[in-house]
């Protein structure tokens, strides 16, 4: 299925008319994403609900992006993105999870690095980019009894996945204001990753300000370990465009 997704993406790019940038363009942003987790993790036949059982709350996150656009039509543009979220909390496991029960302390961390190769299909007041993303992601859930440290569980999922990338933006002429969104997605063999955001943007000279909403839905099985989780919430970012 991965090969099918990559072939579909390559065919889509080959069939679309490509618009190249007039000059070299470089940009970078840093953002804050107020993401909340929901869903569940499983290890073998044991399952745990992230909200009801573990009571996770947001601790920290990091969101960084950078891109490079050029005027060579044949070569794709490049976009890099890094996302890291971490939540922890104190909960109660009445039925037990992977040998852990009672009062527990939990920590869930998700980290992902994207390398996206894309082409500009439209580049005027309507902007459309199509491409392929390679995502290196890892997720880890640690659960430990607060009174008995020998009761400890680790659930992990790691993978490198190809995803279809689509981004669109609509500019209001002469205002610096625009609205848009982008998405990365793949589904295969019962596993899936969907990552999308919508935003409003304001540009002034080299400065770019955004505010919007982002959601990641991840359902991935790694051996006996499975993470079926969703992260969603508002974000803000600031960047420079040259």
Describe the protein's architecture and organization.
The protein is mostly beta strands and 242 residues long. It has one domain (2-237): Lipocalin, CATH 2.40.128. The chain is 6% helix and 74% strand. It is built from 1 helix and 12 strands. It has a 10-stranded antiparallel beta barrel with strand order 1-4-5-6-7-8-9-10-11-12. β8 and β9 form a beta hairpin. The longest helix has 14 residues, at 2-15. The protein is elongated, with a radius of gyration of 20 Å.
Compact summary:
This protein has 1 helix and 12 strands. It has 242 residues and is mainly beta.
**Straight-line distance between termini:** 39 Å
Give the overall pLDDT as a whole number: 90
Count of helix runs? 1
State the secondary-structure class.
mainly beta
CATH class: Mainly Beta
CATH topology: Lipocalin
Radius of gyration: 20 Å
> How many structurally independent domains?
1
CATH architecture: Beta Barrel
Order of secondary-structure elements: HEEEEEEEEEEEE
Biggest sheet descriptor: 10 strands, antiparallel, barrel
Instruction: Pick out the low-confidence regions.
Output: 1-16
Count the beta strands. Answer: 12
Protein name: Outer membrane protein
Organism: Marinobacter excellens LAMA 842
Keywords: Signal
